[in-house]
Amino acid sequence: MEYPKKLIEVALPLDDINFHSVKEKNPFLKNHPRALHLWWARRPLAAARAILFAQLVNDPGGQRGWGHKKGQTKSEAQQKRNKLFQIIRELVKWENINNEEVIELARKEISKSWIETCNLTNDHTEEFPFIWDPFSGGGSIPLEAKRFGLPVLASDLNPVSVLIPKQARLD
């Protein structure tokens, strides 16, 4: 059984992700949790959002003959990929962290890819798989997975890292 390639396996708008991740790590950014306490290993939320999205969304081209629809050309697949890149560009902006329209658009794409993958593999589409982060640290990945409405399992060896998601009600 061949699984469809995910967007992260093919291409990402890395310049946009990097720009907003560096901007988010700035300790002087106003109205940002980073300004409250400098947690040494906290990962940028922008990068966590982008990577989760790209891991869960199918690439429109690839081994399926430029798409799951017969007759799709390379340029049509690239147009669909650019649409997904635009979603990522909007997701990584700090201004859009609570923008429900952007988050809902991402949720729809994730759901669409999940249903497509389940149909290809004859799996159940009722519930998403758990996002498991065994070394969650500051909790960026579990937080962003919850923002997308996904079930999460997170743990860590550091008791402070276990406490952070519990305080944010991610457990």
UniProtKB/TrEMBL annotation:
<dbReference type="InterPro" id="IPR029063">
    <property type="entry name" value="SAM-dependent_MTases_sf"/>
</dbReference>
<protein>
    <submittedName>
        <fullName>DUF1156</fullName>
    </submittedName>
</protein>
<dbReference type="InterPro" id="IPR009537">
    <property type="entry name" value="DUF1156"/>
</dbReference>
<feature type="domain" description="DUF1156">
    <location>
        <begin position="11"/>
        <end position="87"/>
    </location>
</feature>
<dbReference type="Pfam" id="PF06634">
    <property type="entry name" value="DUF1156"/>
</dbReference>
